[in-house]
């Protein structure tokens, strides 16, 4: 069966930056946990879905995704200084530490510590992969029709997210 609308696809992936032989960022082959998803339901980046269309079990697909179609370009205005008092005292700061803050509306915002002193903390609100071209290698393990139960479960989950 070929990858098409409502197909259940199981695949392994490798995500690299700096080319297909570049720095490995994430890999399901290393964890031994392939991902499964229903094709055409917006569960993956559009460029990945496009590349998978009509592929089959056993195919290896390479996808290069520029920053503007992935996590966006870096925004230098997203690097800001905040008062040290905004960080709970029990958190031991270090460069590269990822923090999550909650807005008054309950939205969670991730940030990475760039620098700090006794008065301020410089944080970067950019996604860590912002400005990077992503190089995916996808290993299609299985393609089958999604069951009615799988489609119903996904519809419930997507309804809860909206």
Please mark out the parts with pLDDT under 50 across 5 or more consecutive residues, or reply none: none
- Assign a percent range to the helix content: 10-25%
How is the quaternary structure best described?
A: single chain
Q: What is the CATH third-level topology name of the largest domain?
A: Chitinase A, domain 3
CATH architecture of the largest domain: Roll
Compute the average pLDDT: 93
Strands, helices and their partners?
Elements: E1 7-17, E2 23-27, H1 28-31, E3 35-38, H2 46-52, E4 60-65, E5 79-83, E6 98-102, E7 108-116, E8 120-124, E9 134-145, H3 148-161
Antiparallel strand pairs: 1-2, 1-3, 1-9, 4-9, 5-8, 6-7, 7-8
Description of the molecule:
With 162 residues, this protein is α+β, with helices and mostly antiparallel strands. It is 15% helix and 38% strand. It has helices spanning 28-31, 46-52, 148-161; strands spanning 7-17, 23-27, 35-38, 60-65, 79-83, 98-102, 108-116, 120-124, 134-145. It is elongated, with a radius of gyration of 20 Å. It starts with 6 loop residues before the first strand and ends with a helix.
List keywords for this structure.
9 strands; four-stranded antiparallel beta sheet; 2 domains; alpha+beta; Thrombin, subunit H; Chitinase A, domain 3; 162 residues
Summarize the entry for a quick read.
This protein is α+β, with helices and mostly antiparallel strands and 162 residues long.
